Each structure stands twice: as C-alpha cells, then as structure tokens.
Amino acid sequence: MNDNELMTAVRQSFTGVHVTTPVEQVTRRGRAVRARRRLPALAGALAVAAGAAVAVTSIHPGTPQASHQPTAPLAAWTVAKQSDGTIQVTIRQLSNPAGLQRQLRADGVPASVTLIGQQNPTCRPYPASRTLLDSVMTHTFEILPTAHHGPPTGLPGSALNLVIVMEIHPVALPRGTGVQLATTFTLLPPVTTNGGTQHVARAHLAMGLVYASPQCTG
Amino acid sequence: MGTQRLDFAEFYRRSADDCLRAVLVSVGDQDKAKELVDEALARAFASWRAVSRHPAPAAWVVRTALNTNISWWRRRRREVSVPNPGVIADPAMAECTDSPVDPKIMAALMRLPARQRQVVALRLFLDLDTAGTAAALGVSASTVKAHLARGIASLRSDLVPEPEQEASS
Fold first, then answer.
1. Interchain contact, A19 vs B17, CB within 8 Å
2. CA of A26: which chain B residue's CA is closest?
3. Which residues on B lie below 8 Å from A3 (Cβ)?
4. What is the Cα–Cα distance from B60 to B65, expressed in whole angstroms?
5. How far, in Å, CA of B48 to CA of A39, rounded?
6. Residue A151 falls within a domain, yes or no?
7. Class of the B2-78+98-161 domain?
8. Number of structural domains, chain A?
9. Which of B12, B24, B101 has the CB atom closest to A23's CB atom?
10. Are A7 and B122 in contact (CB under 8 A)?
11. Any CB–CB contact under 8 A between A39 and chain B?
12. Is A172 within a domain?
C-alpha cells in the first residue's frame, strides 16, 4: 500500500460522516451573528451622527478680516443652559473633555465626553433612530471670523476659528439613557496657492445615545 | 442577497461534509466537531461576501472552527480540546463508540500529535496543497511537509500490516 492508497483508505473511512444541520438553520444563525456584529456599528453609525467641516484658519495675505476680529481669546468650550431647559454647547477645541463632561453632568445631562477614538469602553450604545437622535441633539459647524492671519500655532490652538455648536434637549432623552460626544480637531497640511498659503483645520464630531450608567455617564 | 444565499448554499452542499470530517479528525469528538462546524459555517455565512473570495473558503471554515474550539476551551477551562487518545486507542473502547468511522483508523489518527492531525486532515478532506495548508494553519510550508511525512509514517505504522510495510518500502 503506497501513501496515496493509505490516504484514500483513511479518507474513505469518513464517508459516513455528514453534516446533519439544515442549511437554513446555519444561515439563520449566520444572520443572527451578522446582526449582533452590526449592532455596535449600527448603533455607532446612528448613534454617532458624525460630521466634519473644514475651516480656513488663515487666508491669503492681503485679505485681512480686521473688522470681525474678536477682542478676547475664546474659551475652548462653553455650556449655556437656556430658559427652556435646552443646553447649548459650543466647542472650539477639546483639550479638556473631562471638564466639558463635568459641566454637562452638572447641568443635568448624563454625558460621556472624550476625544474621538478614546470613547469610554464601559458605555453601551443605545440603538437610537435618527429621528430620536435629532430630537435629542442637533449640531452645526460654524466658521467664525478669524483674528489670526498667520500660520496656526498648533493644536489645540486659539487660532482655530472652526466651532461646533450643539443643542441638547435633555427632556427628549429616553429614560435611562445619556449622551456620548466625541470630537477631534485636526490641523491639515497647509495648501500653497498662487496667492499665498491656506491653513486648514478639520473638525469631527461623533455623538450618540448610550445607556446611562455610573461608569459611563456619571 | 438571493445570489449570496445561493452561493453559500452551493458551498454548503459541496464542502460542509469535508469541513466536518477535517474538524472531526482535529478534535476527535463528533458532537463537538458538528457544533464547531455549525458555528464556523454560520460565521462564514455572516461574512460570506469576504469568505467567498477567500482562496479556500473551506479552509477558512475549518480554521474558524478550530479557533472557536480554542476560544471555547479558553472560556471553559474545564474542557480539553482533544480527547485522551489513549481511551480511543484502546480497541475495546473504540468498538463501543457509535462513530461511523472505522475505529482503528480513528484511533490511529487520534494518536497523532494535534498539529500532524490538522495537516493530515486538511490534505485528506480539503485537498489543499502544501502552500494552502501552510496558509490555513499559519505555519511554514516546510513545517507542513515535515508534519505530513511524520503523520503518514505513523498512520502506516499503525494501519498497514508489517510485511506489507516492508514490501512497500
């Protein structure tokens, strides 16, 4: 008996071994696996209505915008509670996410605030529909008139004039949930054109709902 | 989605038995092999778009089943991933099993070290060449060759009567 004959004999001894599970049962289980895998991503995608914007932080020499210059350095972020209970959040940079998180919690919003990519692993996404998410939070990106016409001084930098403005409606939060916010501001490589150099920044915002817990939302 | 389901169904029809046989040889327990292959096939279906483009989807399934076995083993430390070869190697015990496989052949396979058994299983049932087997197991081609040669030699020593062994060499 040569090697091939030996292997054939071994292989043939297994001809009575068959799968007995119907393919439909396997595909049903496969769909469940896929759904479970998607849940965080879907929750992330819905939960994390991400946005991005680009701002010119300094523009061509010779086109100053002096008339719009603010007179004082702006805070990295501000939180203002409106009389109707709405919380308005303005974020210019997020060098102190814990501070913003503390402030939101103090204003009655269960919140987890981080930089993007550093989200609190104890937070469990709440599968919110887009409609629900929009009823809880809205956001816009705004480009403010800049006071700075030279190259940005780096991140986090006061030269950035790109601002995220959010409104949070705590009353629209489903019971037992909180908000999760994450942002980054990125300074892109400068773009040189005939008229000069443009310094550009990009902001990303991810936001969503999470199940409230002491570890996640305080 | 319809095409995806048909493709997977065709793959299942053609390859599921061989995947089960390869995993059975690797883990030595038919119920566990079925459970592992069912799970691996379900995962294959869940990622069918990617798995169907794999050079050897059946090898992906077997590898996933074996990895699942390891992770189950890690999760439940009380289990061992292979049965005690000595138990099945005992002909009296082997005859008591209700496996459709020839007990002597199963016992000979179970006496092989785990990696040799995996190499033999992939060659036997998935018809993978050396490179494919090496890729599926994450080892080098020379390791596959060495394991296969040793595995076949051990099987020959266990299953082929001595006079015939001498005649074939």
1. yes
2. B42
3. 152, 156
4. 8
5. 18
6. yes
7. mainly alpha
8. 1
9. B12
10. no
11. no
12. yes
Domain ranges across chain B: 2-78+98-161
CA separation for the pair B129, B141 (Å, rounded): 10
Read off the pTM.
Answer: 0.49
A2 in contact with B at a CB cutoff of 8 Å?
yes
The ipTM value here is 0.77
Q: What residues pair up with A177 in beta bridges, in sequence order?
A: A211
Mutate to test the interface with B, among A26, A28, A33, A39 (most CBs of B within 10 A): A26
Query: Alpha-carbon distance B108 to A64, whole Å?
Result: 85
Q: For every one of its 218 residues, what pLDDT tens digit does chain A have, with 9 covering 90 and above?
A: 788 888 899 999 999 999 998 999 888 888 877 765 554 433 333 344 444 444 444 433 333 333 333 334 456 788 888 888 889 888 877 778 899 999 999 999 999 998 877 888 888 888 877 778 878 888 777 665 554 444 445 444 444 566 788 889 999 999 999 999 888 776 666 666 565 555 566 677 788 888 999 999 98
What residues are paired with A58 via a beta bridge? A199
In a domain, A48, yes or no: yes
The CB-side HSE value for B131 (13 A sphere, CA atoms) comes to 1
Out of A3, A21, A34, name the one closest to residue B46 (CB).
A34
Domain that residue A118 falls in: 23-217
A18 assigned to some structural domain? no
All residues of chain A having their beta carbon less than 8 Å from the beta carbon of residue B125 are: 11, 14
